[in-house]
## 1
Amino acid sequence: MDPRPILLLTQYDGGRFAGWQRQPVARTVQGEMETVLTRLCGTHVPAVGAGRTDAGVHAHGQGVGVRVPAKWTPESLRRAMNALLPDDIWVASAHRMTEDFHPRRSATERRYGYLVGTDEGAWSPFRRRYEWAVRHPLDEAALHEEAGCLMGEHTFRAFAVAHTAPVDDHHRCIIEHAAWVQRDGGWVFQVAANRFLHHMVRFLVGTMIDVAQGRRPRGTMARLLIAPDNAGTSAPAPAHGLSLRHVVYPASCYAVEA
């Protein structure tokens, strides 16, 4: 086996998957990738993701770490996998990594994007698969105000599914970037952090949209950041509008090719 792992930067349409993590019966991204890797390598090869995206969530840049026999170069593995993977998964690039690389623990930042559609065209079947079409106008100032208070380190118990983290988890995350950006036909919420909790981005978006539509008062996000649980949080936004855009790794994790 190659002593150095390979990083596969992977894209997938999450619509027909029960999430990233392998399950006994349901179709998952990890399961499909490991099936192909086993076929190529003649033995089971674990595919370890940088994050466990939920059912219906997409990825433009999921980091997937694998260890394969030495005959495989990053590019030859990428090409072989793309020839066998189903059409809703694609390996965009592959990189040889250092021995101590781990796709989850080595990541310093994860970036997500959530698409919200506000025009009539958002109800088109070609857009509804990837964005949340909302019927009522959004208050732009409220969106910016609520997102702005997320910056920095906070406890996000109010924005996570209860009892999904270890009992001793502090639920603290460092938000490096959080902003609503206007685009043709609607908005995209861009958020980057060192870690994310289960359903966290969807809870954030669902609550901010409620504020921007006047169903909740301004300042709601700031109040929830000090809440002990998620009892006062809005329902999470639909999964199909969310995508894992990018995973950041330090330059020292990438192996120097001879």
## 2
Amino acid sequence: MSVIEKPIHTGDRLISLDFFRGLTMFLLVASFTNLFSSLTAPEYEGTFLYSVGLQFQHVAWEGLRFYDLIQPFFMFIVGVAIPYSYANRIKRGLNHGQIRKHVFERAFLLLLFGWALACISEGKIVFYFQNVLAQLSVTYLLAFLIMKKSATTQIIISFLLLAVTEALYRGFPIEGFNHPFVPNENFGTWLDLQYGGANLVGHWVSFNAIPTTAHTIWGVLTAQLLMSDRQPMRKFKVLLIAGVVLMVAGYALSPVTPIIKRICTSTFVMASGGWTILALAFSYWLIDIKKYKNWTLFFAIVGMNSLFIYLFAHVGGTGLIRSVIAPFTMSVSGLIGESAAKIGTNFIVLFLLWYICYWLYKRRIFIKI
């Protein structure tokens, strides 16, 4: 891990990528504050606030809500960053071997951080690899290793990963784990049970890293498209078509293979991947083509220290901030109601987490691995 102090040069950067990364991290950090869950208090049922809060809760099993897209956003945007980072390192004089060594080191650190976060959350040594950092260590490495292949080859590999996943779940022969789309009775749960890392309550599985590698590969392909000499509107149209095709395919096949995020079924990967590409395409059109970009810095500065703020919020930073401000903000609960006071408290916690990123940004401090 390194602390980098340097000026920010926008230059030829695609501001939409900075915005999309920052928005993704902002929403992820917001979930750590319990802001969205506080919107689903019983007294808000039937209101707009309740509907918004519900979209920021994971589906219990089958289906897709907005919050189920956050991790695909994250996996995808890491893939988008790979070709840009590679090109920058080549410009700085590094060769492919040196960059590959850095990628392996970074993948190991992501896996280590993901495992450590699981241990911290459980308060003991456990072997859970279902969280986003542990998953990312795999998708990042695999996407990098095939980055030099043709676009067609990368696309084929991404769908082969989905096909292998589909075959393993549908054809797994062990009794009790041969029900591909039933919680805790599928191949993914069986695999985690072999090393004591099964998540039998949330039903998340470590094998998700394999199918969701497609998200990161599609991010690499998106970056390669955006770095090409094609006209901006042509790039936008390609992204638009790709996003629509993936999304339609995912929903159209859902009667055959249900959309389930917790085991990352092929239909989930396609539908969420389609939404993700469309989200970036719209950001690219609005910010880099139409030049509506003055408002994007609020989110972009969160993405500039994405790893730091994720770890800080996850390992106790959120609770620390809450313990300081809650005695004051919750004191008005008698006037506005406990649920409203909780929402206000969570908003302030989120703002202070954002302000930490802003403080680092103003001092040109960026913590990276």
